[in-house]
Amino acid sequence: MTKVIDGKAFAANVRAQVAAHVARLREEQGIQPGLAVVLVGEDPASQVYVRNKHASTIEVGMASFEHRLSADTREADLLALIAALNADPKVHGILVQLPLPKHLNSDLVINAIDPAKDVDGFHISNVGLLGTGQKSMVPCTPLGCLMMLRDHHGSLAGLNAVVVGRSNIVGKPMAQLLLGDSCTVTIAHSRTKDLAEVCKRADILVAAVGRPEMITGDMVKPGATVIDVGINRIERDGKAKLVGDVHYESAAKVAGAITPVPGGVGPMTIACLLANTLTACCRANSLPEPEGLTA
Ligand SMILES: Nc1nc(=O)c2c([nH]1)NC[C@@H]1CN(c3ccc(C(=O)N[C@@H](CCC(=O)O)C(=O)O)cc3)C=[N+]21
């Protein structure tokens, strides 16, 4: 039988663990972790995510600081805000919602964040630390995937992992984390020859391509674990629908375990953002890090 990995329930458990740590930090240390989210412009999807992040942050007992800037914000003003957040002791985590409007250089903006407060793990320092196996802030989506994989498999050592997609925010850091857990890792992408055959060798298949339902059941090894990172809004039979990068129906017939969309990786991303904010707060105060909530 195929196991459906319940990311929603898993995320609720992670959030409960974070909330317990936050309560203990308040009682024993008088410290409250704080997360600042910066949203530039009015992209409707981004607004939904930012609202969800705000609600989850409050729910676990953290302080939430929201900064909504107009779409025509000047780069210098955004950089000044980041400098202020870097210097603010109440702020332990900073997230600048991506994508940014085109006139802003997102590399420049992300690299202006204090790496210790970079809860997205996108700063070049954190990318380098992760790549060399040093302590870093780890990108939320890959961290959430890793937690679910460790829970399902126990040890990942020696397993063949194929990551489809080579983005800086998911594909590349996901590959680093799997390598860190001793998988044999292949990164496939749009130019990969014989993609179906490559995917079919995977004990762990992570789909992060951004193409709706591209990974079909015939590309999945029987019994494999399939992690679907895709979140695509499509229209079907005149109705709006959310689908992943995996064709769920056909893949679920072959897989040993699979994450659904919605209710899989998405909720884990936000839970890991809170976990990273807690970790950043503990490090900032030279306190022991929460166990099981880091890579
Ligand atoms: N700096 C930055 N960091 C991010 O982490 C970041 C970002 N920018 N920009 C946008 C993307 C997108 N993202 C999601 C988080 C949760 C769900 C989520 O919880 N999805 C629900 C469904 C929600 C729905 O119905 O739309 C699910 O999959 O079950 C989705 C998408 C974080 N992002």
From TrEMBL:
Q: Can you tell me which residues bind NADP(+)?
A: 165-167, 231
Biological process, per Gene Ontology: L-histidine biosynthetic process; methionine biosynthetic process; purine nucleotide biosynthetic process; tetrahydrofolate interconversion
Signal peptide location in the record? Answer: none
Q: Give the protein's recorded name.
A: Bifunctional protein FolD
Q: Which organism is it from?
A: Fuscibacter oryzae
Q: Which SUPFAM superfamilies match?
A: Aminoacid dehydrogenase-like, N-terminal domain, NAD(P)-binding Rossmann-fold domains
Q: Which reaction does it catalyse?
A: (6R)-5,10-methylene-5,6,7,8-tetrahydrofolate + NADP(+) = (6R)-5,10-methenyltetrahydrofolate + NADPH; (6R)-5,10-methenyltetrahydrofolate + H2O = (6R)-10-formyltetrahydrofolate + H(+)
Determine the domain of life of the protein's source: Bacteria
UniProt keywords, alphabetically:
Amino-acid biosynthesis, Histidine biosynthesis, Hydrolase, Methionine biosynthesis, Multifunctional enzyme, NADP, One-carbon metabolism, Oxidoreductase, Purine biosynthesis
GO (cellular component) term, any one: cytosol
Q: What is the lineage of its organism?
A: Bacteria, Pseudomonadati, Pseudomonadota, Alphaproteobacteria, Rhodobacterales
Q: Which family does it belong to?
A: Belongs to the tetrahydrofolate dehydrogenase/cyclohydrolase family.
Gene this chain is encoded by: folD
One GO molecular-function entry: methenyltetrahydrofolate cyclohydrolase activity
The record's listing under PANTHER family reads: C-1-TETRAHYDROFOLATE SYNTHASE, CYTOPLASMIC, C-1-TETRAHYDROFOLATE SYNTHASE, CYTOPLASMIC-RELATED
Quaternary structure (record): Homodimer.
By its UniProt entry, which InterPro entries does this protein fall under? Aminoacid_DH-like_N_sf, NAD(P)-bd_dom_sf, THF_DH/CycHdrlase, THF_DH/CycHdrlase_cat_dom, THF_DH/CycHdrlase_CS, THF_DH/CycHdrlase_NAD-bd_dom
Q: What function does the entry list? A: Catalyzes the oxidation of 5,10-methylenetetrahydrofolate to 5,10-methenyltetrahydrofolate and then the hydrolysis of 5,10-methenyltetrahydrofolate to 10-formyltetrahydrofolate.
Listed EC numbers: 1.5.1.5, 3.5.4.9
